[in-house]
Design goal:
Low-confidence stretches: 1-27, 653-657, 664-669, 671-706
Oligomer: single chain
Mean pLDDT: 88
Radius of gyration: 25 Å
Distance between the termini: 8 Å
Largest sheet: 9 strands, mixed
Number of helices: 13
Length: 706
């Protein structure tokens, strides 16, 4: 009903020496022709959404060491790309590099990036990936690097190259290369990794692990297919068993206010709101479940649907920014008050204004208006405060993998928003250097927005097949991927993640088959067939993580040489229990030794392995116990698996002196994590001496059809 593949900025690989830092060799020679522009612009193609406002030309003698180069110039914030169709194949990983010197790149859009696009046999764009956004003016020549994997099995053609994407500015480009990288996980041999739990916890405790749960299950389109109220009860039971802590839930203003209630945006007429529309009833039923389970809800006012009284009639998409901020603020506050005062629910903990506004917050002419977006938040913040709703967080950014948008929103709204979030649909369990890719994506945000928690509002892998399906949905590998995603994200400072979505559901029915017939089919729980729901590997993986990384946990990163194959994390739950999580992304068995002096207790072991998963929806049971030897927990991990160890130190009395020492240690650790990070988004463009990777992949954005 509302997803489409869209480009977005992620992050880039920055290193001084590719071979020396990565420790691998490229498996092929340069797949680009004339990447050094010795033959001027031969072999290069260009594309722009507005050719009159940009140009690509040969720059004689302006390249590195006086060689030729390609100059790209944007006189308006348009898309301008140069590319070649290299022979890239599904499932393989590549690194693209380019020497660039740029000037006055504006902060609109994605800025200067390296990007790639995949096409199917009908020449449809089925996914795009991009490097980090670079803005401003470089200090001479710098090298950009971008690792990516061709993630869509339907891709028959792939192009790649430099882009000035929806921004103004000038860039000189030279020495563009693209080479295949070896899959280090597939080639790994068995070994032993010695790691250690950091004594310094992350600054923010966890806000929650959750999932998207949009109120559609009880709509007629699903009831006509055999769904009943009992199915909602079953989903409720599974949410409880999974230990799901939060949900992100869409809401549209017309569900409750199909027409303007009255002419006064400052005084809502409850009688003219619609509390019994099919969507309103389903929303309230979902909130009842969350209230009873103690699941936190982040409500997302998706936007104003085209044709709705609150939309811009010429926005050029199915969704626009609200045309009247005061009226939209009234709608939001009225619904929140109804839920809280009339229903008696306090499960709504956060509000997001506009889904993926970095591309969807469109006003007249289809233009994304950033200043209007900032005013939107300030207007709603004031109205919520007047209504006594200050206990509900405002969550900002919600970007579609646009680091530039995230940073601009933080700068403008850090005194308004309580938390900031981003979306990503990238990578796969077998993506080489996955830990570094995730880490750089997260650090690009947590190192910038140091005063507020960062949350993944949506995530999935990079195997999208159109709007409503993904190639990996049923696979074991997707389950392993969500574990890597959670462990690496939390280790790098994220405070939580929300998987897209909880279960399959029809948003609508399209009898022609478009958009997967309207069935959102990437859920952890598969759609009811022959009276039964199915449970995918992601369900078991996410349930294991949710149960042992509860809300409010303190996160301790695990340090040491992981070979880019092992992901590890330690958390302390509010009840005082500890969990160690270790993921093996290689094709060989590995032994992971994790040392710590924070706890010393026997721990229950839970294994996520392909041949060990339940099939009936029950959660993974313990397969034994692990005790430390001299402060070291030795964990054996089969190929492509992960383990969770969980245990609690026996309670013992502490002296006043011990309590004082513990307090002093905790305060010192907190002071260290509170230290402000240097630099910001623009500083990420500078080369670094150590591996600081991130990659990109297709972002799944939202689309709706009436």
């Amino acid at each position: 009903m509302f997803k489409r593949v869209l480009c977005a900025a992620v992050s880039c690989l920055m290193l001084l020496s590719l071979g020396g830092v990565l420790g691998v060799s490229a498996a092929s020679e340069n797949m680009f022709k004339n990447g050094n522009f010795e033959k001027k612009l031969a072999n290069w193609q260009t594309w722009s959404n507005d050719p009159a406002s940009c140009k690509v030309e040969f720059a004689k003698g302006e390249g590195v060491d006086g060689s030729g180069a390609m100059r790209m110039t944007n006189n308006a914030p348009v898309a301008n790309g140069a590319f070649q169709y290299a022979s890239m194949q599904y499932g393989k990983t590549y690194i693209m590099q380019a020497d660039v010197k740029y000037e006055n790149v504006s902060s609109e859009g994605m800025g200067l990036i390296l990007g790639m696009t995949m096409y199917d046999a009908a020449s449809n764009n089925i996914g795009e990936m991009a490097s980090a956004s670079h803005y401003g003016t470089s200090n001479g020549w710098v090298t950009l690097n971008f690792i990516f994997t061709v993630t869509n099995e339907n891709a028959v053609a792939v192009n790649a190259g430099p882009r000035l994407w929806f921004c103004t500015g000038t860039v000189l480009v030279d020495n563009v290369t693209i080479s295949e990288l070896t899959n280090i996980g597939a080639e790994a041999e068995s070994g032993t990794f010695d790691l250690a739990v950091s004594e310094t916890p992350n600054k923010f405790s966890t806000i929650g692990l959750g999932a998207e749960w949009d109120p559609k299950l009880l709509l007629p389109v699903n009831k006509e297919r055999g769904v009943t109220d009992e199915d909602l009860e079953l989903i409720k039971q599974r949410m409880d068993e999974m230990g799901l802590q939060c949900v992100r839930m869409m809401i549209m203003p017309e569900w409750f206010e199909p027409q303007n209630d009255d002419a006064d945006p400052k005084a809502a007429d409850f009688a003219n709101y619609c509390w019994d529309s099919e969507e309103a009833k389903c929303t309230l039923a979902y909130l009842k479940v969350c209230q009873e389970l103690g699941v936190d809800v982040m409500l997302t006012w998706w936007g104003a649907a085209a044709g709705d009284w609150l939309s811009y009639p010429d926005c050029g998409d199915w969704l626009s920014a609200p045309n009247d901020l005061d009226e939209m603020a009234e709608n939001i506050v009225t619904v929140l008050r109804y839920v809280k005062e009339q229903m008696g629910y306090d499960c709504v903990k956060g509000v997001i204004l506009q889904n993926e506004p970095s591309y969807s917050f469109k006003v007249s002419g289809g233009v994304v208006d950033f200043d209007y977006y900032v005013q939107y938040y300030k207007t709603v913040d004031a109205r919520m405060s007047e209504a006594g709703l200050d206990d509900i967080m405002l969550i900002g950014a919600d970007d579609a993998q646009s680091l530039g948008w995230y940073c601009r929103v933080y700068d403008e709204l850090k005194d308004v928003c309580d938390m900031f979030d981003s979306h990503t649909y990238s990578w796969s369990y077998d993506t080489s250097y996955l830990d570094d890719l995730i880490g750089e994506f997260v650090h690009g945000r947590t190192d910038y927005s140091t005063e507020k928690p960062f949350f993944f509002g949506e995530f999935g892998d990079g195997s999208a097949q159109g709007a409503y399906a993904a190639a990996s949905t049923e696979t074991y590998g997707r389950g392993l991927f969500v574990a890597s995603m959670a462990v690496n994200s939390l280790a790098c400072g994220a405070s939580g993640l929300s998987y897209w979505p909880l279960h399959d559901v029809y948003y609508y029915y399209n009898e022609t088959g478009g958009d997967n017939y309207g069935l959102m089919s990437m859920g952890m729980i598969g759609y009811k067939t022959d009276g039964e729901w199915s449970y995918r590997p992601t369900y078991y993986a996410w349930g294991l993580l949710c149960n042992y990384i509860p809300k409010g946990s303190t996160v301790y990163p695990v340090t040491g040489d992981n070979g880019n194959l092992i992901d590890a994390l330690c958390v302390k739950a509010p009840d005082g229990s500890y969990s160690l999580i270790a993921v093996n992304r290689s094709a060989a068995e590995q032994v992971v030794n994790i040392s710590t002096d924070m706890f010393d207790c026997e721990m229950d072991s839970y294994l996520f392995a392909e041949d060990k998963l339940p099939s009936d929806g029950s959660q993974i049971a313990s397969d034994g116990k692990v005790s430390p030897t001299d402060g070291v927990y030795s964990i054996t991990l089969p190929a492509y698996s992960f383990r969770v160890l969980n245990g609690k130190v026996a309670e013992q009395e502490t002296t006043a002196e011990q309590e004082t020492t513990a307090e002093q240690s905790e305060t010192a650790a907190q002071d260290e994590t509170d230290a402000p990070a240097e630099g910001g988004c623009k500083s990420l463009a500078a080369p670094v001496a150590a591996l600081a990777v991130a990659a990109a992949a297709a972002v799944i954005c939202k689309k709706k059809k009436d």
